[in-house]
Amino acid sequence: MARRAVCPGSFDPVTHGHLDIIARASRIFDEVVVAVGVNVSKRRLFSADERIEMLRTACVGIDNVRVSGFDGLLTAFCVDNDAVAIVKGLRAGGDFDYELQMAQMNASLAPGVETVLLPTAPPHAFVSSSLVKEVAAFGGDVSGFVPGFVHDRLLARLAERADGD
Ligand code: PNS
User: Is 73 in the pocket of ligand 1 (CB under 6 A)?
Assistant: First the structure.
């Protein structure tokens, strides 16, 4: 049976750091489902449909990856999709405590689903969607951290927001 993993996240928006983890997961597992949280509490810059569409475009060329929205518990999504693992990236510092807590909670909810934490590649160690949005909002250059088409969408959305203020 194909061994399937889930790469979950908010992806608001997708960064090169996310794509590095997805690509590496795709080389370890037979199939990867990128699971885009559609109903999480943080305020989002992009709608769930926009985030899913951007990920689908960014993942073109990785044959064993598909992108799906998910609502509710991640472990329920994993069980429904016959996934054996949750794969996430681990940056230095604060990520560890948060990820360990979630991994242990998820293990207690779905003992058959292992969490695999991949160390983030050094070039992406400091990159997060939140920081990318903050730096871009203040005019900083974030073009190296996201795919080109995502960068265009990000600047356009921030300009729309600024016009609306
Ligand atoms: O990119 P993020 O914001 O760190 O992604 C967090 C996400 C969506 C993976 C996490 O919030 C999640 O798993 N949400 C689904 C709800 C759930 O299962 N919560 C319990 C986690 S132990």
Answer: yes
